[in-house]
Amino acid sequence: MSLLITDECINCDVCEPECPNNAIYQGDEIYEITPERCTQCVGHYDEPQCQQVCPVDCIIIDEEHPESEEELEAKYQRLMAEKE
């Protein structure tokens, strides 16, 4: 599953630069995550880096976008191929 930033976000700016897939961006009111780019850091790190640095723990699993570990790995492979 991709991750989701809740409305508890305080716009502290620490999550965006941590995302290796450039999935996090400044939305109208809070930071948001593009589900098509979020792999929960699969392929890059053992744990989602945005969750690790978030001071208010407002980044949660997005139940609207369920994905298996294999699907996240395939998404990572696709994103890496697009970079080339």
Please sum up the structure shown.
With 84 residues, the protein is of the alpha+beta class. The protein contains 2 helices and 4 strands; from the N terminus they run βββαβα.
3D structure, described in words:
With about 80 residues, the protein is of the alpha+beta class. The chain has one domain: 2-Layer Sandwich (Alpha-Beta Plaits). It is about 25% helix and about 15% strand. The chain contains 2 helices and 4 strands, in the order βββαβα. The strands form 2 sheets. It has a two-stranded antiparallel sheet with strand order 1-4. The termini are far apart.
Primary descriptors:
84 residues, alpha+beta, two-stranded antiparallel ribbon, Alpha-Beta Plaits
- Cα-based radius of gyration, to the nearest Å: 12 Å
Number of discrete domains: 1
Q: Report the sheet with the most strands, covering strand number, pairing sense and barrel closure.
A: 2 strands, antiparallel
Please bin the fraction of helical residues.
10-25%
Strand content: 5-15%
Distance between the termini: 25 Å
Query: What structural class do you assign from the helix and strand content?
Result: alpha+beta
Compute the number of helices. Answer: 2
CATH architecture annotation: 2-Layer Sandwich
Strand order of the largest sheet: 1-4
Number of strands: 4
Low-confidence stretches: none
Query: Could you give the order of the helices and strands?
Result: EEEHEH
CATH topology: Alpha-Beta Plaits
Return the CATH class. Answer: Alpha Beta
**Average of the residue pLDDT scores:** 96
Which outline best applies? globular
InterPro entries: 4Fe4S_Fe-S-bd (IPR017896), 4Fe4S_Fe_S_CS (IPR017900), PSI_iron-sulfur_center (IPR050157), YfhL-like (IPR047927)
Keywords: 4Fe-4S, Electron transport, Iron, Iron-sulfur, Metal-binding, Repeat, Transport
GO molecular function: 4 iron, 4 sulfur cluster binding; metal ion binding
Protein name: Ferredoxin
